Amino acid sequence: MDSFQDFKLSKQLHYAIEDLGFTTPTEIQAQSFSPVMSGKDLVGIAQTGTGKTFAYMLPLINGLKFSKQIDPRILVIVPTRELVIQVVDEIEKFGKYSSIRVKGVYGGVNINQHKALVMEGADIIVATPGRLYDLLLSRALKPKHIKKLVIDEVDIMLDLGFRFQLTNILELLPAQRQNIMFSATMTDDVEEFITAFFKAPTTISVAVSGTPLDNITQYAYNLPNFHTKINLLKDLLVDTETYTKTLIFVPNKKSADLVYELLYDFFTSEVAVIHSNKTQNYRIRSIEDFNDNKTRILVTTDIMARGLDLENISHVINVDTPRFPENYMHRIGRTGRAEAQGTSILFSTPAEQGFKENIETLMDHTIELLETPETLEISKLLTWEEQPKIIERDNPHTIVEEEKGESFHEKSEKNSKTNQGGSYKRIIKQKYKKARTRGDKTYNKLNKNKGKKPF
DNA sequence: AAAAAAT
């Protein structure tokens, strides 16, 4: 099938496709159309950026008869809240002439709000596992008409912590249903899962590793330690002409806060941060500001690594070298999307060389190694105690809105001054209080993470 | 190994 015209779809869907300017289906869209239409179980092995949502949703929506019933008929489960928001947005776009009612539910939002939302009625529910399970248990969401189930990023969903939630949910769904799943990789866990829950599935596999990376230019630097990585990061990001929109991946939440802090000294409100300990409002704001070009640099954990469609990312910088090569593939896949050209940069310490080799083996491609600039300041290795303390800041643009008159810089100045005089205990106390008043969860874990090294 | 996901 070379054109969407060849798909037997309703007029409404054809209009929507035309509006979106799509003419040629991607490989996965062409391949999954017939199996999904026929009602058979489907297993799709596909990297992100291959048009997955469109691939399963088009035939599913097409088969949906108009109804006003409250209980949903299609359920989509994805691993992060941000993906819920994105998938809902996509479905609304191509379902706009088909009177499709789609609702997204996820944690971090008052559950009564979601109960009310669900009671309004929906054809399609998109959800993260935890909130979905809550809604099912409380009977706010009734599963009996769910005949189509889509699970995205299954390999992640089978990680410990996710998998019990997922299997609990599956037990509550009607046995007679069509199962559709997508996974970037086929692991033993995924295979086991398929045998347990799928009935004679059609398996399609597209985008063998290597091929979707044609429009991403990859570079690497070998650097002695973390602080030298930060120095190089600063030296690179100064070039605002080149680094127009840069996503910076770090290995964990603690280093996300730290790298944000270190970059903030140089780039102030050009930089933002996101990770799962931030409140939902903060997370949404960070992404919105980045999408709207209010910030140029976004520091993130792997929360942003998968599936998200961010516009015009010029660079992806990996401050750490992921020890699992798939993570690298997911991360750099945030750039070079939909024909665009992108650049990725990988930082590796001597200890991380082995991880880099694994990545190169998987891709069957050697990442071009760039010379360390002679002007680069090589840091001595600081101990954890010598690391700069993290000052928790609000999202800059949120502050500007909320604090009338007082600018973000004035406020942060004030904060750092008040913090300098006080005893450690008092500072912690202040931080807890501030964290509570603005609902930031990071400092709830302050003591738990104390002394834990980011690298 | 760390991330995310429920309060």
UniProtKB/TrEMBL annotation:
InterPro entries: DEAD/DEAH_box_helicase_dom (IPR011545), DEAD/DEAH_RhlB (IPR044742), DEAD_box_RNA_helicase (IPR050079), Helicase_ATP-bd (IPR014001), Helicase_C-like (IPR001650), P-loop_NTPase (IPR027417), RNA_helicase_DEAD_Q_motif (IPR014014). Signal peptide: none annotated. Belongs to the DEAD box helicase family. Residues 426-436 have a biased composition (Basic residues). This is DEAD/DEAH box helicase. SMART domains: DEXDc, HELICc. It comes from Patiriisocius marinus. PANTHER family: ATP-DEPENDENT RNA HELICASE DBPA, ATP-DEPENDENT RNA HELICASE RHLE-RELATED.
